[in-house]
Amino acid sequence: MSQLLLLMHFLLLTVLLAPVQRVAACSCMPMHPQSKFCHSDFVVVVRVKNITTKHSVGDYEIAYKVKINRVFKSNPKADVALMQNLLWTPSSDALCGVTLNVGETYVVDGRIFSGKPFISICGLSIRWAETTSRQRKGLRQLYQQGCGCNILYTHWRRKGAVLESSGGKRCLWESIPGPQVCQEKYGVCMADNTGGCSWAPSVPYKNCIKEYQRKRDQQRLREP
Known about the structure:
By secondary structure, the chain is of the alpha+beta class. The protein is 34% helix and 30% strand. The strands form 4 sheets. Strands 3, 4, 5, 6, 7 and 8 form a 6-stranded antiparallel β-sheet that branches.
């Protein structure tokens, strides 16, 4: 029973701490990769070796046996928990379980519960080969430097009103058809010289926004 209560507590946290996705009965709140990094106990790059265990009351959990290639973030509890080279997750997509493919390499984040490292579909789980150079730099150092900032997921139509109400203190992550992808793949939210936070300038981010604006202009020209 205690394990089941622990699982439900974990699922509640993943719902509160994570991007809008819908997998069966699992739904997650929007969360930028930087925010996931900042709210996690650990962030690691792993190669999945196999699925080793079904465990707990009613087989609610599975464990991935992994090789940890790199640790971007950890704490003392995570250091101990990760020594087993196991990552635990709910056994069902409906319970926000993560599906990882054996033989592939991912960057994942997670939390420690009862000495075990848990990952969730609401957290960070990206194939390492699909991460951008800017995301990798964020994982190495920039995300940590920006953890004092708040990234707010915002409907693109409400950007102006939200920006005004926040007084420029937050980075706005704009929904599609806003530049959501650019901000997700290339955006790093950092403190600026005004006392607020803003998307840090970079060549990849600038180029992505420029291409986004070009496509939006073309789309507008095609509209009646």
